[in-house]
Amino acid sequence: MQNPPPVQTSSQSVAQVAKSSTGLDENVAALLSYLFGWISGLIFFLIEKDSRLVRFHAMQSILLNAVGVVVGGVLWVAAIILAIIANLLADALGALVWILAMLIIGAFGIALFAAAILCLVKAYQGQYFKLPVIGNFAEKFSAK
After folding, report:
1. Residue 105's CB: how many other CB atoms inside 10 A?
2. pLDDT in tens, 73-83
3. Is residue 72 pLDDT above 80, yes or no?
4. What pLDDT does residue 14 have?
5. What distances in angstroms separate CA 31 from CA 25, 107, 118, one per listed residue?
6. Residues 6+ apart with CB under 8 A from 139
7. What is the pLDDT of residues 90-129, one digit of tens each?
8. Residue ranges per domain, the chain?
9. pTM passes above 0.90
10. How much is the pLDDT for 2?
11. What is the model's pLDDT at position 16?
């Protein structure tokens, strides 16, 4: 009769996680760089000296939030202009244009939130997940 294989305890099955120069685990520091938007990204980018993973995610957080502010601002200015036009038209077309503008702003906000959540998860998993366009810039700036 064969003996069953030994059971691994949780401490044996957990992989070693590298530490960052902040004293935190790399994946935790990378996650925290997204948590409070560009502010936490900037803090971790400035204080992290050793970990490329943390510096990459910190820079991607800064860039993601910068793009969010710029594009969000442009969309709101466009919505205000459309509101003025809708007020001048004062008919069903004006209301339709305004509703469409609000739907676009809402969709952008949801997409930005989803991207941030995805980045949080990937950072905690210790992966170099690059967002389109932003990720390439983050990689370039964090390598310095």
Report:
1. 16
2. 999 998 888 87
3. yes
4. 39
5. 10, 24, 11
6. 56, 128, 130
7. 766 777 877 888 899 999 999 999 999 999 999 999 999 9
8. 22-142
9. no
10. 58
11. 61
Query: Residue holding tokens 């996680």?
Result: 17
| Rounded CA separation 132/128 (Å) | 13
**Tokens at residue 129, please?**
């997940």
Question: Going by C-beta distance under 8 Å and a sequence separation of 6 or more, which residues neighbour residue 106?
Answer: none
Distance in angstroms (rounded) separating the CA atoms of residues 38 and 15: 30
Cβ-count burial 58-89 (b if 16+ within 10 Å, e if not): bbbbbbbbebbeeeeeebeeebeebeeebeee
39-54 burial: b if 16+ Cβ within 10 Å, else e:
ebbbebbeebeebebb
- Token readout for 46 is 């400035």
Tokens of 96: 């339709």
Neighbours of 8 (CB within 10 A): 9
Sequence letter at residue 64: L
